[in-house]
Design brief:
The complex is a heterodimer of chains A (393) and B (563). Chain A is of the alpha+beta class and 393 residues long. Chain A is built from 10 helices and 21 strands. In chain A, the strands form 4 sheets. Chain A has a 6-stranded mixed beta sheet, with helices on both faces. Chain A has a 6-stranded mixed beta sheet with strand order 13-12-11-15-21-14, with no helix packed on it. The two termini of chain A are 34 Å apart. Chain B is mainly alpha-helical. Chain B folds into 2 domains: 17-56 and 339-563, MetI-like (MetI-like fold, Orthogonal Bundle), CATH 1.10.3720; 58-328, Orthogonal Bundle (MetI-like fold). In chain B, 75% of the residues lie in helices and 2% in strands. Chain B contains 25 helices and 4 strands. Chain B has a two-stranded antiparallel ribbon with strand order 1-2. In chain B, strand 1 (50-51) and strand 2 form a beta hairpin. The chains are: A alpha+beta (393), B mainly alpha (563). The A-B interface holds A 11, 13, 19-21, 56, 58, 77-80, 83-85, 87-89, 91-95, 104-105, 108-109, 152, 156 and B 1, 3-5, 8, 452, 454-455, 457-465, 468, 473, 476-477.
């Protein structure tokens, strides 16, 4: 059953140009299966929150149909819809205690006091809120308010849970903790969930499927793997994570993947393609920085490559880098331009003579070794990690 | 899809019809605003053009020809302008001192500066007469001067400044406190001297606030009736008093109406300037974490200079109010200062009807006006319906309309069928309710803007309908604002005179009107005793409301009530 959106379009009057209109959501269709966790991801203003508010009933679609649990709900107000929302600002009632907040939905249903009490207590145990039952909202931390908001939403046993950027007001560490918590709760109760965020890490962690939106349109619907490693178009590839684009022409189409001759003449195999292509088609090949392999071709010329970071002076000595790709010509060659050491990974910007530097990331840098600015390196990738986007679509 | 204005209207009307409760409430509120605010004003306009020969300008020509009446107009404009400038300057210096320096007795200074706001506006005039008048404590008893030329321009300006500068002070303190001190820190950090920081950062940021305070003071002084009635004298006519005298003295309704219209135009102009121009220019500088105020931005010499100024002002206010207190207990003011309770015996005897009437009228009208204000605030902030801007403008208009004008409007409008109300309790109640709704609307709008709409959406999302959401969530959150609005509305109702003086009757009288007539007949002791009781009642009411709120809402109520 779940949630089904059919050709949803929402048009608002433009607040900046009276008389004009803005298309906030354009022809959006999606089928969310029962128990599934789907995230709407996109830059601000892409229409994701409007879509969520159309599902909850706070906005009416200009065109299209909203189906919840097999029922057309276009004309139902929010209070008649079987959805519960977790708001970005939490929207905890400031005049009610924690337990009163959580029990509010049941009270509206007119359940007996005893039932409300036991249900509230049960939920508070699950959400680890029992010792806060009589607190006032202004005495709660951000994370606690978040848990109260979630508890208040799930106590009604809605068929759909809606999350409107629920973690954006928390600090980084708590955010990572809460997104696992949200996923755990959602799995425990098996509630169909629709989640809105602009944080891709969050989307990757919690979702069964991700809907990437831009300027009111759906750009791609897919699993986190598909969205990241097999993006449907340039926007999705660019929006999610960091990326290298290499242009080329298809030379051969095989059952498993294609061969591409890149603009600088080198030919490589590419395992996947967003759409079927034919020989001779122009493609853009997507390779993530961590999929690029680097190997040393020649050290930095004396005097130019000295690392300016005092701390790393001794540690960053050149450990012999594996020369696995020494056979044959590398995909690209270039000089290391910038080194950013982030602890768990090391990022490089490599000048290959192209318009933009090539981005590469190495993991476990202590063991794999570091490159110095000025080092001449060879760059290559495995066909499995490369993905082709047909050009001109 | 071609969007248009008419399609939005159509949508809003359809929406309204889909929500019968909203429709009924909007209809009732709008029609009552028309009947009790616009209709009386329309009658004033109509009457002033209603010449014996039909519609015409002859009444205005008469007024313009009369040197005396024209003088009143210019005097009013001049007095209001000077009070606006002087009062705002004084208020700004006071507010700057309180918010930007660490002078001693800050809290005490603040409380004393607010006294004039919570007391009848004509107490200043009374006290000045008792201090500097013919039997004045300072002029006659201390300095031995007889017939000090107090009546007229000088005395009135002094009274208006003392009466109205606290309003500028409260406004400007809010403005100064909203200017983040980090901006001043930054300017100083960039090498600015203290004076430069003030000249180039603090002052420019407060200009819109100062302009707004000036316009409010202009409106208040134009409308003021009590002080000029006591102090202006015949040499220095003031428009509001002239309009009153035309109607009660000469029974000349058309001329009174014409004068009222002359009074209305500058006030409404100032109000529109304030609302649609100055308030748009307000800077919003609150950013990031709240910072504690800096004390270092004022040079010690400047600081003690400001302290001296504030001390002087505070002493003047105390002098004014202590004089009234003393006057209430003195046998015959100025000649026999032995203490007596006879004035209070008079108030609790002959005058007690007025006390009860005042309490009844204020006690009934204030909560009604508060509830109406909350409903209008809720509609204006949270709902979409045709006529919304009309509702907001009309309901806030009472703030700009001088009491004299609305008083004349009421006797013109409700003295003949279909609504004959003159002489009744109802006319006083209705007048007070519609005159003081802006107070409730303002505090209601302020709190609603603070309540995240998501909180109401959360309730709806959990299954509450519009009615339940309003009563279970919105209303409880508005209660503290309702009560703090109630305090101001109550103070205003208790101290009202300019409109009420037209509407009182032998059945229903007010303490303020009593005080006026006592002053006019020279019985300053009884007038003082009445004033003391009046201020005492107001303070008691404030104390009770605050106590209830503090008990019920704890910190929340206390915070909101901080004037």
């Amino acid at each position: 059953m779940g949630v089904k959106l059919v050709n949803i379009t929402k048009v608002f009057p433009d607040p900046h140009h009276p008389g004009k209109e803005v298309v906030a959501v354009h022809n959006v269709s999606i089928d969310v299966k029962e128990g599934e966790f789907v995230t709407f991801l996109g830059p601000s203003g892409c229409g994701k929150t409007t879509t969520l508010r159309i599902i909850s009933g706070f906005e009416y679609p200009t065109e299209g149909e909203v189906w919840i649990s097999g029922k057309l709900v276009n004309n139902d107000p929010p209070n008649k819809r079987d959805t519960s929302m977790v708001f970005q600002s939490y929207a905890i009632f400031p005049h009610l205690s924690v337990s009163q907040n959580i029990g509010f939905g049941l009270e509206l249903k007119g359940l007996p006091k005893e039932t409300i009490r036991t249900e509230t207590e049960r939920i508070m145990v699950v959400m680890n809120l029992t010792n806060l039952a009589n607190r006032r909202p202004d005495q709660l931390s951000g994370g606690q308010q978040q848990r109260v908001a979630l508890a208040r939403a799930i106590i009604n046993k809605p068929s759909v849970l809606l999350f409107d950027e629920p973690l954006s007001n928390l600090d980084a560490k708590l955010r990572e903790q809460m997104r696992l918590e949200i996923r755990r709760i959602q799995k425990t109760f098996g509630i169909t969930s629709i989640y809105v965020t602009h944080d891709q890490g969050e989307a990757m962690t919690v979702s069964d499927r991700i809907v990437v939106m831009n300027e009111g349109n759906i750009m791609q619907i897919g699993t986190p793997f598909e969205i990241y490693s097999r993006p449907a178009n340039r926007f999705v590839a660019d929006f999610i994570g960091r990326v290298n684009f290499f242009e080329g022409t298809v030379t051969q189409v095989r059952e498993q993947g294609i061969s591409v001759r890149f603009t600088h003449g080198v030919e490589r195999e590419v395992a996947s393609c967003a759409q079927t292509v034919r020989s001779g088609d122009q493609v853009l090949v997507v390779v993530r920085p961590e999929s690029l392999k680097l190997f040393l071709k020649g050290p930095a010329p004396m005097g130019t490559g000295s690392n300016s970071r005092g701390v790393s002076e001794r540690i960053l000595q050149r450990v012999p880098v594996q020369s696995n790709a020494s056979s044959g010509q590398p995909f690209l060659e270039g000089r290391i331009d910038k080194v950013v050491y982030l602890g768990s990974v090391c990022e490089y910007e490599i000048d290959t003579g192209g318009e933009k530097p090539v981005l590469a990331v190495t993991h476990n840098p202590i063991e794999e070794g570091f490159f110095q600015p000025g080092d001449l390196v060879g760059i290559d990738f495995a066909s499995l990690s490369a993905h082709a986007l047909p050009q001109g679509n | 899809m071609v969007p248009s204005r008419s399609s939005r209207w159509a949508r809003e009307i359809r929406f309204l019809l889909g929500d019968p409760l909203l429709f009924v409430v909007v209809f009732l509120v709008l029609s009552s605003l028309v009947v009790f605010i616009l209709y009386p004003l329309a009658r004033v306009v109509a009457t002033s053009f209603d010449t014996p020969k039909g519609f015409g300008f002859s009444i205005f020509l008469e007024v313009l020809k009369s040197k005396y009446l024209l003088q009143g107009f210019w005097n009013s404009i001049m007095m209001s302008t000077l009070t606006a400038i002087g009062g705002s300057l004084l208020g700004y210096l006071f507010a700057y001192t309180i918010s930007r320096t660490n002078i001693p007795f800050k809290k005490l200074f603040h409380i004393i500066a607010i006294i004039p706001v919570v007391s009848p506006p004509f107490i200043g005039a009374m006290s000045i007469i008792m201090l500097f008048g013919n039997n004045g404590l300072i002029t006659y008893s201390l300095l031995g001067i007889n017939n000090y030329p107090l009546y007229g321009f000088r005395g009135l300006l002094f009274a208006q400044l003392i009466t109205f500068f606290p309003i500028a002070y409260i406004t400007l303190r809010g403005v100064l406190e909203s200017i983040s001190p980090t901006l001043e820190d930054a300017a100083m950090d960039l090498g600015g001297s203290r004076w430069q920081v003030f000249r180039k950062v603090t002052l420019p940021l407060s200009i819109p606030g100062i302009a707004s305070a000036m316009l409010v003071l202009f409106i208040e002084t134009m409308a003021d009736f009590g002080n000029p009635l006591i102090l202006a004298g015949s040499q220095f006519p003031i428009l509001s008093v002239q309009a009153y005298l035309q109607i009660t003295g000469m029974f000349d309704l058309p001329t009174g109406s014409a004068l009222a219209l002359l009074l209305l135009v500058p006030s409404v102009t100032a109000y529109i300037l304030q609302k649609y121009w100055v308030s748009r220019k307000q800077y919003i500088t609150i950013t990031g974490k709240p910072t504690t105020s800096v004390i270092k931005s004022v040079h010690p010499v400047a600081k003690w200079g400001l302290f001296g100024l504030c001390l002087f002002v505070v002493m003047l206010i105390l002098l004014v109010y202590l004089t009234i207190l003393w006057g209430a207990f003195a046998n015959v003011w100025g000649t026999d200062n032995t203490l007596t309770l006879k004035h209070f015996q008079y108030v609790f005897g002959v005058g007690f009807r007025a006390v009860l009437d005042t309490l009844t009228i204020s006690g009934i009208s204030t909560p009604l006006s508060g509830i109406l204000g909350m409903v209008i605030a809720f509609l204006v902030v949270r709902k979409q319906f045709p006529g919304k801007h009309f509702m907001e403008f009309t309901s806030m208009l009472s703030f700009a309309v001088p009491g004299t004008v609305i008083g004349i409007g009421y006797i013109l409008a409700f003295n003949s069928p279909p609504l004959v109300l003159t002489g009744t309790l109802a006319i006083l109640l209705l007048n007070f309710i519609y005159r003081y709704i802006p107070v409730g609307i303002q505090s209601g709008i302020a709190i609603l803007r603070q309540i995240d709409p998501a909180i109401e959406e959360a309730a709806i999302d959990l299954g509450a309908d519009a009615k339940k959401t309003f009563f279970r969530v919105t209303l409880p959150l508005m209660v503290p604002a309702f009560f703090s609005g109630l305090i101001f509305a109550f103070v205003r109702a208790m101290t009202a005179i300019s409109a009420a003086i037209f509407l009182v009757s032998s059945h229903w009288n007010l303490m303020t009107v009593q005080i006026m007539s006592q002053v006019e007949s020279g019985r300053l002791g009884a007038a003082s005793a009445f004033s003391v009781i009046l201020v005492g009642l107001i303070l008691l009411a404030i104390f009770v409301i605050r106590a209830i709120l503090l008990y019920r809402y704890g910190r929340l109520g206390g915070k909101l009530l901080n004037i």
